[in-house]
Amino acid sequence: MNKKSETDTIKKVAKKTKSDTNKRVTKKTETDTNKRVTKKTETNTNKDINKKVETVRRFFSDSKASNHPVKEHPISKTDEYIRNMYFDMLCVAAQYESDDTENAFTLIKRIMSACKNVQPFEEYIRRSMELTVGKTAEFIKQCRDNKLCEIFFVDSLLISCSNGTPNAKQIAFLAQYGDMLGFKKAEMTEISEFAAAILKQDSDGYQKILNKNNAYIQEAVLCYTKEFIEGMILNTSKKLYYYSQNFKEFDNINILKDYDEIKIENMKIRLKQKEMHISSVKNLILENCYVLSTTLCLSSIEKIKINNCNFKWDRKPRYTYEKGKSNVYYCNRAIEADLYNSKIMISNTKFSDFSIYSFNAFDYRLNGFGVGAVFCAYGKQNDQKNDFVDITFENCEFTNIQTDCEDKFYEYGYSVFYASPLAYYYEVSVKDCYFSNCKTTYNSTYTKYLFGYNFIEFKAKNNKLIDSDILGEHMQEG
Length: 478
What we know:
The protein contains eleven helices and 24 strands.
């Protein structure tokens, strides 16, 4: 082969080798580029997905909080300035020495959900990172001035314990907070017991630590205890409060007395004794209760409010009396009251299925006098005309109430309401009420009334009567 041919061959081989090398390099470069693009695309996609998932998780967390607000929290009653500082400081407690704040933040959001005019949660987080001595001192002052010390300390304990036992630094921080809020060591220990019962949702354990000396804590934490307590939820020297979410049957306690206020809410009252005696109380509140086959015996109460309750008699009579050897008489009342200078409001309440027997009005076998009715009021003659009892029935329903009485005292049969002839100064008002099958069953030429006896004023407005006696002798619609 001549020299020229060899040169041409070498050139061809070199050209082919270069071409193949370029192709491989190009292919590798394209492959690497595609891998980098794919990886970058996947990374960006993952970031986008993560971002969206985090948004969804925050939505779940916020929804959980908004669906379970801490209702009636004391901070919800304060102004915006105090409220903002409160949430700032709770965020401080949530983040201090904590790597997992999700549960703590959820509790703060639950408290926020029950408040108006709150700021975005992120704003509280931002300000919590700008904590200063001056801001802390101002917050402590506002807590003391607005009686928020107990609830803030409880909230801080709940937040710090939301993921288990707090560490030593968190405990020291809480102790310093408690000291600045003005609590002694024994008080901090007692508040910690309340917080522990709330965390455990321990109704029995909570009720065991109630006493007359820790009233300041009991009232502060009602926003939490109403979520799990069944029964006595508050018992101080001035107030007694029974509450249930599920209409728990009332404890078999039939005497309650000597309080400024007694409140019974969402309870089922069906006592073995068939009587509940409540006396010497300034303010009595019955809210959303079932009172079954039990008579409320009330005395020396200044103000009574009964709302959205249901009174019904569904068992054997409370009292039975034999007339001769064969006849048995009974008297089932919803309420009997010995009242002076009292104001009574009964609203949105139902009374049903009462069988009532009346004796002589001056027969004292039955708590003051013998007349039976759904509501019986009695007492000695008042000394002054301005010492009167004001009773209002509003938007109430009375059904299936039957009254009978002794033959010689037939003029004293009333189905719904009766006041002793000695209790002259009663003002009675009946508005927007419904009466069905309410009547006396004895034979008499006397006119039969649902309401009786002497009143200084008797008003009625927008009432509906179906198969019932007329309202009263001196009661006119208008």
